[in-house]
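Subject: Interface between my chains keeps coming out wrong

I've been trying for a while to get a sensible model of this assembly. When I model each chain on its own everything looks fine, but I need the whole thing in one frame so I can look at the contacts. Pasting all components below, labels as-is. Any help appreciated, I'm running out of ideas.
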Amino acid sequence: MKEKIQQLRDELNQHNYNYYVLDTPTISDYEFDQKLKELQALEQAHPEFYDENSPTVRVGGSITKNFPTVVHEYRMYSLDNSYSKEDIEEWEQRIIKTLGTDDISFTCELKYDGASIDLLYEDGKLKQATTRGDGIQGDDITANVRTIGSVPLQLRGDYPQRFYIRGEIVMPKKAFERLNQERVAAGEDPFMNPRNTASGSLKLQDTAEVAKRGLDCLLYFLVGDTGIATQFESLEKAREWGFKVPNYSRLCHSTQEVMDFINEWDTKRHTLPYETDGVVIKVNNVAQQQELGYTSKSPRWAMAYKYKAEQVDTQLESISYQVGRTGAITPVANLKPVLLAGTIVKRASLHNADQIEKLDIHIGDWVYVEKGGEIIPKIVGVNLDKREPDAVPVSYITHCPECDTELVRNEGEAQHYCPNTYHCPPQITGKIQHFISRKAMDIEGLGEETVELLFRSGVIENYADLYEITVEKLLPLERMAKKSAENIVKGIEKSKEVPFERVLFALGIRYVGETVAKKLARHYKNITALENTTVEQLVEVDEIGNQIATSVVNFFQEEYNKELINRLKEYGLQFELSAEATAGQTDTLKGKTFVVSGVFSLYSRDELKALIEQHGGKVGSSISSKTDYVIAGDKMGPSKREKAESLGVKIIDEVAFQSLIIS
Ligand code: AMP
Ligand code: ZN
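Reply #2:
Try treating it as a single job with all components included. I did that and got this:
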């Protein structure tokens, strides 16, 4: 069995490498998932072969309560910055003076814009991952970093027995966009930029959430004495050992060649899948590096060249206000078209009222527009020299541009909302579009535009109406062929099989995204239980906070929603967990309440909780007289232990728990 497990781990490591590092997968995602599931099952059945670097850790599932501080064995320096050819020539002169030779070559690399990371490998396995922190000490974020697909868990080739390697954890532009789409779909504010989102993601407590963020890790520096003579070779070596080391670095023999590299990449960098904000120039020869040494802040042998963020000024013609599915208002600047980073820009995002006020924008102003990681560029300032004396400041709208309802703004929130949830046209169509979307009901044949058309023609006013659609009702519509009409009806019919958790997501409850919907579905098992729950009970569910709980309860109290859901029930949608999802359910733990605390080795905390629920038990969040068992792992807090003891609650470990459910 051990061999089988090892073989699957090797195989999955190889596929991970092919996919994330080489970007050339050799099997389908489906096949990969099957193998991963097989390994997960074997590991669960054979906890004695547990390995912290098994490819199964990539999916996450453990919770990190706090990130211990780690003192860096080798300090993490920052870099000096340069902005021009003259800066670089000056730097070169200083180096020539110190080294007493002008025989110096440079490695030029792109400067990846993310969060720096320090990885420790021992015997080819990832041991520790630490943030830069203040350069002297950082935070141990190993569990989170293990979920990043391009971070090798097992090295290949002739790697040193023990070494540190440094790099940057970035959020690729695509992953950033996708994440923001999901957030907006769940009624949350979008994140501002990929860099902050990458570093924020690394500090999430739930590794499963980190795993879903689509982070990438690009390496650029081997630390300490590795016996490798040059920076350029060390990049090649690291690549051989299985690290993702972008292949764009170039060995240059003069500052002119360095400048050529810089100029070439000034525009080309925008085509890369991740953000870069400059070039890092490093003295190639390691012996020379050592001779040059460090200042108190940075290596003397390296220099960052920072690109100016691409910026232009253009005139702001007007502001339009978009109304989203949840009623959130997004102001958008309409600009006089202008060329920026290779594309014509006509619109820019302004985020919210505060942003407009902060920038003190007047209509007709010449505004500076910048292109960051986002697809839509943003306005970063106003060119006051060009302001007309009679320009009027923007006054934010007070009423919905679509339905004229007075807008509201909840305390502590940045966005204004149109509260006319059920009768404001873009909110109606937005909700239906969300309902039919791929991750929700995934209705084939129906797209966003068709939904608009159906709404405008009066065929539907809400998502329940979809199930009353017939081919006859569709045929009179503009450009509706018989075949497409039939497909739509078929697609709608088929959606009745979509499982409960996705139906729950499709309902469009604010703050209930895909993950929360899954959690709620698993916990409550059917819609009736959820309809009758209270805020107090909801916050007892793992990771459901007050905001989500209140939103759920309000949703189900609303008459309008009750009616829609009753209709959906009559149409035969899935409103309870399927037999498949409830397979393996028993009553073994019925009536028993468990609290899970500490860190475990056989199971992740989520797995333990799922097992408790699967066997009919309840998961409590804090120890009280109602608790029957505390399952204690490593690092359970002493105060919790005391409390359990004083209340006479049984404390068991994961093995004892296992025997409870197996017997
Ligand atoms: P700064 O944060 O502006 O002082 O720049 C220094 C940071 O640039 C380092 O801490 C690294 O995280 C980051 N960086 C990105 N790409 C590279 C690279 N190719 N070589 C060295 N540092 C890099
Ligand atoms: Zn409205």
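Reply #3:
Confirming on my end. The mean pLDDT is 91.
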